[in-house]
Amino acid sequence: MNTVNSTNTVHPVQITRVDETQWQALSGDVVVGHADVSTRRHDLRYVSIDVWDDAAFAPLADAVRAALPAPLRTLLAADDPAPAARWERAGFVPERREWEYVLSTAAAVPSLAPGVTILPAGTADEARLRELDREIRAEVEAGPGWHTMPAEVRPCPPGDTLIDPSLYAVAVHRGRYAGLVRVVRGRGPARIGLLAVRAAHQRHGLGRSLLAHALHTLHEAGTTTAWAEVDQSRTAATTLFESFGAERTGQLLHLIHH
């Protein structure tokens, strides 16, 4: 257990590292805040800090930054500038923004483009699906980087990037596995967690066909709404979702400390 003292003109704050991923702020015998670190895809570390005394925020952020190697990230709702300003004072800078979308599943299924077939979730050959997943990830990593994709919070075994093969529908174009969509169902709206098409097969309507298939499948199963997060810089993706009537319900701000 590591302890750091920080003196404020009003409240002396003591920071204690409770375990490998948690810190606690104490003012006297009262807990006034805590920090937590979670690891997401590709070992990206995300920090969250909750305080009940504003004097505890900076010491908690300092303690986490001192204990863990950079880069560190955090994720905020972007509609309130005050939390972002506090993180920026702690040395974090904006990295990217995402739109949060909600859309109805009552979408008409368009006719497929020539040479395109959609394999429903759970029917694709697993070996070919895993190869497609690796190819798409390599293409994204070589460009903007996989960290710009919506966060994957479900754990995978080490070295395995496919969350659950049964969740993926696949677009076959000219005989090749060329695109995929992953949908996760819960008690409420379903989440469209990933929609991607290989670069060589883009501009052939695969993304539109995959999204329409996913929405239609959900509608047939009785799920009326779905939600998704889309990087605001990806104009083609935002245009695609909005063409299906997706409504912006909020935006997320990713910040990073290098």
UniProtKB/TrEMBL annotation:
Q: Which UniProt keywords apply?
A: Acyltransferase, Ribonucleoprotein, Ribosomal protein, Transferase
Annotated Gene Ontology cellular component terms: ribosome
Query: Residues in domain N-acetyltransferase?
Result: 116-258
- One MF term in the entry's GO annotations: acyltransferase activity, transferring groups other than amino-acyl groups
Which SUPFAM superfamilies does this entry report, sorted A to Z?
Acyl-CoA N-acyltransferases (Nat)
**From which domain of life does this come?**
Bacteria
**Span of the secretion signal?**
none
| This protein's name | Ribosomal protein S18 acetylase RimI-like enzyme
Q: Which organism is it from?
A: Kitasatospora cineracea
